[in-house]
């Protein structure tokens, strides 16, 4: 016996999808909303916690392997453990703050989302300020609690490793940030959520894992930043000339990688340029 199907009945096999409108360019009206300031606080605290836990991990590892003080070069958490600390904290903090601020915790991510018209200019600028202040405070707590070890083991500051030139360091930061921001765009794409509604996707998981794998690849080169706030906070508190020598790499690289990722996702994968051209042609006719 066959089941009668009404051909006019709507198909609910997938969610209806419509591209959300782009965020306003400036968004001054956000300044009058408490939800906006709550988001700034969330970004500040999340970046503070991120820097505190990760820099403490780096300092602790350097102390554990310090042979001059009886350390074991094969001891400690190792580079794998450091990568887990960074990736794991991003997973936890994005999960906790995504519903409040979007869980950026990184000026490069915010910059990429600004270029993709996901956030306004006002929100992007104030997010970056909150993230940098949170990073400074987070590293400040590390120094306050572990002052001797902090000063002895480089303060967790990002520096170009010996044997690598500036071009290699810049390239590592560009590609690493591209991977991260591309993952952010893909994991939070509303079209994917609608199309794959039957597949439960936890967006913070691939974002945290992207940080994890990038750190494994680039930590020998630059110590892995892919986050200007992370490098800025460590450089400000450590305040050593060597930490500032190549500091520009940890801003130019991540911002460039984020811009390329935003362009690639919006104009290549999502074909925004073709849609805009098609709309222009239809209006001309």
Automatic annotation (TrEMBL):
The keyword Cytoplasm does not apply. It is a multi-pass membrane protein. It holds the Pfam family MIP. It comes from the Eukaryota. Its main location: membrane. It is found in: Membrane. Keywords: Membrane, Transmembrane, Transmembrane helix, Transport. The keyword Transport applies. One of its GO terms (cellular component) is membrane. The chain crosses the membrane at residues 40-61, 81-100, 121-142, 168-187, 199-221, 248-269. Belongs to the MIP/aquaporin (TC 1.A.8) family. PIP (TC 1.A.8.11) subfamily. This is Aquaporin PIP2-1. It comes from Castilleja foliolosa. The lineage of its organism: Eukaryota, Viridiplantae, Streptophyta, Embryophyta, Tracheophyta. The gene is PIP21_1.
